[in-house]
Design goal:
The protein is mainly α and 222 residues long. The chain is built from ten helices and no strands.
Length: 222
């Protein structure tokens, strides 16, 4: 009797990526949950400082400077580590939580510089009528994965992301666009659904990168 494998395979489509990410999310839910929880908690110090009342007191100015330094020099390492762990879950690889902080020991400068360059490029694009910023955001969506997964330097990661997303910009935009109603729908489910939506969307971006990466590897074999 033939055994039918009901598991999905990674595909470079919006629905295919969301479907594969959903499968992997529930397969390793605790790990995806812990990654998002830790990244969210470690982002909160900078968020609190950004949202604090604006005044000219010395303590508040110092807090803002400290928050900016944390956001630029510390949090990118944690954020990129979270992306790497999500990717490992998508690939059925061990999601060792220490990898969340591995960037502090190695690859630190590449992570920080890649984060700064990506932020600057997208920011400049948003200044010029918003649409270029959206395009840049879609085309640079793979930078964090390439820095962490392929150990590429910042410029090389940006160039490679631009190359890999050449024919996939609309799919990446579609994934981001679909995240909005998913998050809003999650809010209706007693907030818990919103958190699950965030996990799902993050896993979906990792799934899409994985699918495109597999395509790239197949092309190189021929």
């Amino acid at each position: 009797m033939e055994v039918i494998n009901s598991e999905r395979s990674p595909k470079t489509t919006v629905t295919g990526s969301y479907g594969y990410a959903w499968q992997q999310l529930w397969k390793y839910f605790l790990y995806f949950f812990l990654v998002a929880l830790i990244v969210g908690l470690l982002e909160s110090p900078a968020s609190i400082a950004r949202e604090s009342e604006i005044d000219n007191t010395l303590s508040n100015i110092f807090l803002k400077l400290l928050s900016g330094a944390y956001l630029l020099l510390v949090f990118p390492v944690i954020n990129y580590g979270g992306d790497l762990l999500n990717l490992k879950g998508i690939r059925n690889e061990p999601m060792d939580m220490y990898l969340l902080f591995e960037g502090f020991k190695k690859n630190y400068m590449n992570i920080v510089l890649a984060s700064l360059l990506t932020f600057a490029i997208i920011g400049i694009g948003l200044v010029f009528f918003i649409i270029p910023g959206i395009i840049f955001a879609c085309r640079l969506a793979f930078v964090s994965y390439l820095v962490m997964d392929k150990n590429l330097e910042p410029i090389a990661a940006i160039e490679k992301s631009w190359e890999m997303t050449r024919d996939h910009g609309w799919q990446i935009f579609g994934i981001a666009l679909l995240a909005i109603p998913l998050f809003l729908g999650g809010l209706l489910c007693f907030i818990v659904g919103a958190f699950i939506a965030i996990l799902w969307v993050k896993a979906t971006f990792a799934a899409f990168y994985h699918a495109v990466d597999l395509e790239e590897q197949k092309k190189m074999e021929f």
